[in-house]
Queue: 3 jobs
Job 1
Amino acid sequence: MNYVLLTSLSFLVGIVVGLTGIGGASLITPMLILVFQVPPAIAISSDVMAATLMKIVGGAKHWQQQTLDLQVAKWLACGSVPGSLIGVGILHLLRQTSSLDLDALLLRLIGMAILGVTGIAIVQMLLLIFAPQLRLPALPKLDLETLKGKIWTIAIGAILGCIVGLTSVSSGSLFALVLIAFFQLDARKLVGTDIFQAAILLSFTAIGHLSLGTVDWGLVLPIWCGSVPGVLLGAKICEVTPQRALRFVVYSLLVMVSWKLVHSV
């Protein structure tokens, strides 16, 4: 195991996460499996543990910079945390009672959904750049000052949390889509809110993976050494990055994540 290379690559991943809020699990797990030949079960559990600290540090930095919407993150977490626990429970039940390759099916469906929605978002952004005179319809914005808005936010968080609990992937990209579609956050607050919410969600998910006994601390520690300073640097860059360029980076990463999910099986 080349720990210097692992730490260096983790530093780059940390920058991407701090800058965009997404990409942690989508980059670290394949990196461990493809570059370092780590068994998938160990790679996934070690990645979850490493990503948890990375998201916590990044979320704290964005909170300090006030580049997040705390209300949105709080109400999404109210749904996503119990949703993820339900998802884990459903996964165990289905695996015990069915021969269906549930992970493969879910990954492909999630990937296609993200690819479709992100494709529409990119087209909309390009039209706004090259044809600003057009007035395109937008999805209704959820108002967290109302009971209806809070209930819908908790429900959406629960559904996405359940998906994360079932698959252990795509927490960043799924929630980024929701933040774009239903809250219309500016790019900086989108990133910070996504990271902060993911930190809460992954903290509970990590406990489950610890109980499985598949976390390799020999992998987690070098990833932390690289990803933590990387995510701090990425969060700082996010504070001064132009809105349009940052949003394009987010969309581009979502396309890559979705493409990987669609072709992962």
Note: The chain has one domain: 3-262.
Job 2
Amino acid sequence: MSENKEAKTFKIVVVGGGTGTYTVLKGLTKYLPEVELSAVVTMADSGGSTGRLRDTFGYLPVGDVRMALVALAREDDEHERLLRDLFSHRFNTGGEMKGHTFGNLLLTALRDMLGSESEAISVAARILGARGRVLPVTLGNTHLVAEYDDGLVITGESLIDSPESERVGRRIVALSVEPRHPANPLALEAIANADMIVIGPGDLYTSVLANCVVTDVAKTIADSQAMLVYVSNLMSRPGQTRGMSVGDHVLEIEHYLGRKVDKVLYNDTPLPVKVLERYRLEGDEPLVVRDNDDLNDRLIRADLLDDVSAEPVPGDALKRSLIRHDSEKLADVLVGNCIKSNYNSD
């Protein structure tokens, strides 16, 4: 992008939560200040450290906010890197403290002191020197609700994300949030003014679409003139997307948003055999592009795989991805194939 010195700052909004949003944001920071970054993150999380703090204090969930802030944190010197790592530190002992991250506790304490989630996030962002904005999709306390193909309705992100064994073969046919609080006006404003909206990677229903079913979010994305990019997951998820292809994911996203996805980023590097064996024990399968997926020239195939397999963090009770996208590879493809092509077409 640097060769076009007169180009305006390119506004990118990443919609999602968890590790996927962290990965996209972290990679894109290398292109600052030519890009302006905002993250719109789900407020449906109800598991792990976040869920325990939410149940205890009644505040909005903080885990997805923390991860996005850490991704945007400055790391120019040893002090800044230590501060970033401190926010991610997870306690592995200490009774009730086990499983909590320092960043989650700090955000909760700031909310307690300041009386506002927005103020707490703002202060935490200044502490970390965050190079972008992190915006809760809503400032209302909501829970995710999923209706399945057999008519069962389950409330609670953690129950949807980690279903009972008899639910792993079921499909979600309708997703919503209760109660239906309004969206955060700042999140809607960021989406409306974006040049590019990136959704995914992340669990289709509990990370990506959990944002899109909040009041007015889908309509704002549909009305936006921004390029809409979906970063395809690497694996399916039992109880959510088993048997679904990349095209099936795109169709589901388009169903909830009411607009077409402009570009789809897909990793075409073979996944490690040993790691795949671990996934298959849980019923996961690699996400593939099928011949009948109507993606055509929207599909961008590239090496997006992180060379290092993630290992479980001591004290973390949640199931996490073992294979992930590489943040720099992902950012390079987003910039090279989406942003630059957009400039060249003007």
Note: The domain at 10-140+184-345 is CATH 3.40.50.10680 (Rossmann fold).
Job 3
Amino acid sequence: MIYIFHDNFSYSRYILNGIKDKQNVTLIEVPLPHGLKRKLLKWGERLSISLYTPLSHNKEKKAVLRMIKPEDEVILFDFWTYENVRYLIKHLKCNTVHVWFWNTLNDYRPRIFSLSTDKTILFHTFDPQDANQHEMFLHNQIYRLPEQKNLATYEIYDFFFIGLNKGRFGTLKELNSRLLEWGYTTKFIIVDRHEKCGVIDGIEIRNKEVDYNETLQLIRQSKVLVDCTKTKQSGITLRVIEGLFLNKKVLSNNSAIKNLPFYTPSRIFFMNELNDKETLKRFMRTPILPATEEEKKPYDINHWIQEIVNTKTPMS
């Protein structure tokens, strides 16, 4: 049996629910802490001390841990909380634990690499730079095949962006202004829990997670997805793979995409080539062919699971 522990994020649920092998894969959703509990975790991370361990107070999840056998496979899916990871590794009976980073490493996550245990812990990432620096196994970005009933499209926006702030507001503000000046319609949403909801310079600010079903609807209503990769990230973002799976064009600042098998100039345009509106107009008018199943397969969640569990020994 494969057990996948994941945080309670709507986009995680959506992609993991695309797993076909329901008999051999069990998804275990861990609630996100709020209020004082979130602050205790944050302070503990900054001070590198233990102030609060969410899973140690969850009777339901502790009961699941007792069901896991030594031969089972366990995947910790984008667990950023050090205390949860430490608790799980200490109490799991399985021999091997896979830790998947679905974001680039920040200042606190490297603490996980220093965990002391007699288990085999294998670290996996989508980011080539992090894989090289921290000796992790490198895998493709992941997505899932959409349900056929949800494929209807009614495009009302030319360009759509959604994502956390992560220092990208200035870049997105400049891009949004240029696109509007050139006569395009845009829908830019930045999520920042430290800001008040509202509209700043044409960009919508939200301070809570946007449900992924709403994001999917906005993607289907848009012609081009804006991919603004944050500083120090070398792996491709979810926006690029959404474009591949949902047949949308992409405007990106990540020129490394040119090296990927599915790249075509009709599908992806780069911000550093956004010199005049005529060039962009030609890109917008050029039709794209839907990606083939072979192009999608390396990024499908089911392919990813097999890659993860087939990894048996640490990197040397």
Note: The first strand starts at residue 2 and ends at 7.
